[in-house]
Amino acid sequence: MEPMTSTTLPGARSAAGGGRPGPLRRTLRDTIAPKVRQVADAAVTPLSIDDVLDHFHPLRGGSELRGRVVQVTPETPRSATVLIKPGRGWHGHVPGQFVRLGVDVDGVRLWRSYSLTHGPRPDGLISITVKMVPGGAVSTHLVRRVKPGTLVHLAPAEGDFVLPQPMPRKLLLVTAGSGITPVIGMLRNLFHKAEAPDVDIVLIHSALARAEVIFGREIRGYAEAGLLRLVELHTDTRGRLDVDELDQLVPDLAERPTYACGPVGLLDSLEEHHAARGLELFVERFRPVLLAEPGEGGTVTFAATGTDVEVAGDTAILDAAEDAGVLMPSGCRMGICMSCVLPLKEGTVRDLRNGELTHAVPGETHPDGVMVQTCITSAAGPCTFSH
Fold first, then answer.
1. β strands within 77-190, DSSP E
2. Is the overall model pTM greater than 0.70, yes or no?
3. Pairing of strands 151-154, 98-105
4. Which CATH code is given to the segment(s) 298-385?
5. CA–CA dist 214, 207 (Å, integer)
6. Are 386 and 305 in contact (CB under 8 A)?
7. Separation between Cα atoms, residue 85 and residue 304, nearest integer Å
8. Which residues lie below 8 Å from residue 283, measured CB to CB, with a gap of 6+?
9. How far apart are CA 63 and CA 56, in angstroms?
10. Which CATH superfamily is domain 66-154 in?
11. For 212-251, what is each residue's pLDDT tens digit?
12. Where are the domains of the chain?
């Protein structure tokens, strides 16, 4: 339903006076409204009036951005698409981008990033497709437990893994496993337009088995309709994709910008392969590149609660703390968005990407602590955070 609007003819005035509010009305608004709010807040103490409004209308404009789960549809035995109605603060996205989503699991709010698996929809809904990760609290919750009507927390869409404008004449898409999720959003947006762009697309997709191919029926349908050429590979029968095969699979590889998303090993191999040949490559990683050799771990103490967490030398503090039930701020989990930053008061941590050490020494470093990204750092001995 379209929002209701009112129209005032030129020169006319509404019953309320029309036009911009005059000085008297602005004064009344600016002085009375805060007092009304104070009275309302006092009436619902210890809650605030926002808490009450959120209860009855959680997706209203001006409130914290949230969404309501509308539907959960299985895609494979271990994956599902979650359809969400976002609140009024949602400003859309470009196909290929991701959304940070927060869910409450066993009383702890956990944040994860998921690719949006569609283009702009007429109904305004958004969708993510989640593949269960062994031991993954959030992925298991979303695939197996979440029900329609559940409220989730959202952040604005992010990411630059999007197709160029104007579109190139030829394009290669390389995906594996759940790496198909940002790419399916691109394809749906391209093929559902009134006039699909004239682009020669090759999609190479690798999965454990035919039954494990997320969106398998859909991408095969695109191939049957002549919208793209599909090379579908199953590791249970032919092994993993070897990037050295690309020249045989795609003879005109040098003419195609490559967009790739999948496991770290595949992306690392593609980057090395394309760099050696001077080929254009754009990648989307679900995890940061961890290059440093694991060091010693240690005990992390969260001073505000007195909680101690043992962190292995190859494990991010964020992951270990969440596994121990500590409520942690987080975002992209890749060292980009800075949402996971916490002050290190004492001790040493190691950057998992390059092995660099960060120290905090009481009396020497800043009294407020040294800010640390917990998603890409591990403990290097005992350390304390003021959290």
1. 79-86, 98-105, 108-115, 126-131, 151-154, 170-176
2. no
3. antiparallel
4. 3.10.20.30
5. 8
6. no
7. 36
8. 161, 259, 260, 261, 267, 270, 271
9. 12
10. Translation factors (2.40.30.10)
11. 999 999 999 999 999 999 999 999 888 888 999 999 999 9
12. 25-56, 66-154, 170-284, 298-385
* pLDDT top residue among 68 and 64: 68
Gap between the Cα atoms of 177 and 213, Å rounded: 7
Strands 98-105 and 108-115, by their bridges, are antiparallel
Count CB atoms within 10 A of the CB of residue 239. 10
Backbone angles phi, psi at 117, to 5 degrees: -100, 40
What is the dotted CATH code of the domain comprising 170-284? Answer: 3.40.50.80
CB atoms within 10 A of CB 132: 19
- Dump pLDDT digits (tens) for 309-357: 999 988 899 988 988 888 888 877 777 778 889 999 999 999 888 888 9
Q: Is 50 exposed, middle or buried (0-12, 13-18, 19+ CB in 10 A)?
A: middle
Residue 91 pLDDT class (50, 70, 90 cuts): very high
Residue 1: both structure tokens together: 């339903």
Given CA atoms 302, 303, 305, 308 in this order, what sign does their dihedral have?
positive
User: CA torsion, points 104, 182, 82, 77, in degrees to nearest 10?
Assistant: -100
Instruction: Write down the number of H helices and E strands in the chain.
Output: 9, 17
What is the signed CA dihedral for 165, 220, 73, 325, rounded to 10 degrees?
-70
**Closest C-alpha among 354, 358, 353 to residue 380:** 358
Contact 259, 173 (CB under 8 A): yes
Q: And the tokens for 245?
A: 């095969």
